[in-house]
Amino acid sequence: MKRNLVSIPLGILLVSSFALAACSDGGKATPAATNAATGTTAPKATADNTPTPITIMAPLNTAQTPPDTIIKELEKLTNTKLTYQFFPADTYEEKLNTTFATGALPQVTYLKNQATFIQMKSAIRDGQFWEIGPLLKDFPNLSKLKSTTNDNTKVDGKLYTLYRGVDIARQGLIYRKDWADKLGLKPPATTDDLYAMAKAFTEQDPDGNGKKDTIGLTDRNDLVYGSFKTLAAWLGTPNNWGVKDGKLQPEFMFPEYVKTMDYLKKMRDEGLINKDFAATSKTDQQKLFTNGTAGMYIGAMTDVASLNKDLIKNVPTAVVDVHSMVAGPDGKFAAWALPGYANVVLFPKSAIKNEAELRKVLAFFDKMMTPEVANLANWGIKDANYSIVDGKAKKLDEEKWTREVKPFTDAAIGDEDTSGRLLGIPSIPAQGKADELKIANLKFAVQDPVAALDSKTNLEKGVQLQDVIKDATNKYIYGSIDKAGFDKAIEDWKNRGGNKIIEEYNAQYKK
């Protein structure tokens, strides 16, 4: 079978694996027994109580692999024998590429995000992963997954993935409120105000140490999940694709995209942002905020609790806040919207030999969506990692939760409302505000019009072609090319297959 490689640069990874023991009931409901340690219920053994071995590969968004605290409880609840292979998120795509190329993907393979999923579609089309859509009706909990999100992950109308749900409009600004208060700044109402805040945070000694050692905004080498897409939406850019003169066109062919580049170029030229952002990892981007260097972080507002936790270790007096309603030059609000999923899971045929084995793996995920197991994966062990207050989960120790539970939370399937897990009590006021703003943002959410569409040429060449635009965007912001140089890159994109992508998307869009 032909193996299509994911186009990702190479690097060095750290891997840790954990063996877990548990049992599988093949997706059939069984009587439950109470687990005294967790306050949850576990299925009783069936006639065949042989553990089903499952190996899971997933990205790790924490500094260290988790201890076996949660693993021991999972083995009591899920009737499987699991091996978790965690790889650092910053280099996960590289490891995914390498493992895929050698035919060594495990039974359960998490991707990293929407972009990685798009890269993998050609391999899905090539028949290298199991189609699971027709089977979901046989699993009571998996069948609760949202049809609209499932539709956004289909390939040629077929479903191959389970998804990890995400807040559709979670993007916004996390900033140092103590700095803003000291300098007499209000939350930015416009993109001009946002620039003014970044300039003040850079030039007016907000930390009061008498040195010019702060910057306004910290960013990273990601034009999607870094600052760029969120800023672009505020400045009026469409989400990946937009409609101009009744025809779909890519975002970078809109003048607002150029305005976004100009905006960030000005900030970089004036030293208001880390000048090497195109070579900065997410980890290092966040460190610039948590070590007290940067005063603004644009991204998922839901990151505020973890950023605050690390920040106050270095600056105990720091106060953070969140904000999202930033109007562009036209005075309108807009919020970049995700397609309903943060990540997806695929099931390689090279690791799962037949449908019977596939059903056992799906049975595990069906149990992971029961309230009992979902609470364990999302909150940890009751009275050790969280307590229940007024019907909601309250973390007892944010740092301990991050260390022990977060890796499993990041691998959870479904959404808060589809799994029935407990809602949480904010650990800091800014987290509660972020929860409110991500709902308020929905009114202004800008959707991707091609999220559920496919282009054959985009699947074959989209990754390489997008690199042309990404490279040109960074070069423009860095000042190595001008507008003419950027327009030349667009023509290069068109001539190498971009025109065909536009044609194919428009043919589907008009149906």
Automatic annotation (TrEMBL):
PROSITE patterns reported for this sequence: PROKAR_LIPOPROTEIN
The keyword Lipoprotein belongs to this UniProt entry's keyword annotation: yes
Biased composition (Low complexity): 31-47
Region (Disordered): 31-50
Residues spanning the signal sequence: 1-21
Pfam family, one: SBP_bac_1
Top-level taxon of the source organism: Bacteria
Keywords (A to Z) from UniProt: Cell membrane, Lipoprotein, Membrane, Palmitate, Signal
Keyword Signal recorded: yes
Protein name as catalogued: Aldouronate transport system substrate-binding protein
Originating species: Paenibacillus aceris
